[in-house]
Amino acid sequence: MIALQTVVALMVAQAAPPALMAGINDTQQRDAAYEELSQGETDAAIARLEANLVENPDDPALLINLGSAWAVRGDKEKAADYYRAAASSDVRYRLELADGEWVDSRAAARLALRALEQTAVAMN
């Protein structure tokens, strides 16, 4: 089972500063608030991600990390909604997981949603 803290750490940059998200190729980068999330600055991460989502509403990296931030805040419903939005987004690209594995953004969103659901079941 993947802990929620690991879900937050799912998204890491390829060869960019920690607050940037690797996209489908080396030139496409997104500010996905990785630095704030990894440092436990959840409110700052949510503010940054929501601001970035205005310009890129279907970006799976933003959606996944926003879901992770809300999961950390304890709002599992909101987290699940963001994960589902990422899993069904028409925008998709490969993301690097914390363990170095590259996966499709939809697969990463489904992985985060499963981890959230397993955590909810374990808490009941």
Automatic annotation (TrEMBL):
Q: Which UniProt keywords apply?
A: Signal
Cite the InterPro entries for this sequence. TPR-like_helical_dom_sf
| Signal peptide positions on this chain | 1-21
| Pfam families referenced in this protein's UniProt entry, alphabetically | TPR_16
Is Signal tagged as a keyword?
yes
UniProt entry tagged with the keyword Signal: yes
In Swiss-Prot or TrEMBL terms, this protein is called Tetratricopeptide repeat protein
Q: Which organism is it from?
A: Aurantiacibacter flavus
Which lineage ranks, top first, belong to the organism behind this chain?
Answer: Bacteria, Pseudomonadati, Pseudomonadota, Alphaproteobacteria, Sphingomonadales
